[in-house]
Amino acid sequence: MSPRIGLDRATLLQAATEMADEYGLESVTLSSLAQKLKIRSPSLYNHVKGLPDLRRELALSGLSKMAARFEAVLPEACGDEVLHDFSVAYLDFARQHPGLYEAVQRAPDPEDRELSEAGGQVVSLVVRVIETYGLSGDAAIHAVRGIRSVLHGFVSIERQGGFGMPLDLDVTFRLLVDTFIAGIKALRVQGET
């Protein structure tokens, strides 16, 4: 294999993203990436420090794409539509980029300021969605954790082929989000009494 002319970090990251989305995050190794790019593995060290650095870059890319998707739907909706649109954007991202989705699920090293800030930006967008229900402080954080758990649970079961019955998954998803919304409204009412 001869060195590939014009290989840059963006090309490397795009190839790693394609591999992660098609075969899963664990399939992305320096060896497999080098093979895909038709280069020798040591050539990758001109662009990344190693596999942990590559996975960090995938997580940063995933968080950036996820945030852009969430920002795109937030101004368009109002009322319960905000949470529905956010939830659909979350599901669509996970379906279209399963490898990047997997990469963003790992908690960042607290010392990694850039990754923590990227994750914080996504969380702040989710908080904005939850705040439309009048929740703030601890109640908002609990609700953010709740919607993340609900959405991640659905994504994980769907990805593993766990929904075997012949019913429309999008209908199930909408019912799930509607149920969560009813719970948030109940939580808000409890907070008011």
UniProtKB/TrEMBL annotation:
Ranges of the DNA-binding region feature: 29-48
One Pfam family named in its UniProt record: TetR_C_33
Domain (HTH tetR-type): residue spans on this chain: 6-66
Cited PROSITE patterns: HTH_TETR_2
Keywords, ordered alphabetically: DNA-binding, Transcription, Transcription regulation
InterPro entries with a match to the protein in the record: Homeodomain-like_sf, HTH-type_TetR-like_transc_reg, HTH_TetR, MT1864/Rv1816-like_C, Tet_transcr_reg_TetR-rel_C_sf
PANTHER family: HTH-TYPE TRANSCRIPTIONAL REGULATOR RUTR (PTHR30055), TRANSCRIPTIONAL REGULATORY PROTEIN (PTHR30055:SF239)
Protein's name in the database: WHG domain-containing protein
Species annotation: Cohnella hashimotonis
Source lineage: Bacteria, Bacillati, Bacillota, Bacilli, Bacillales
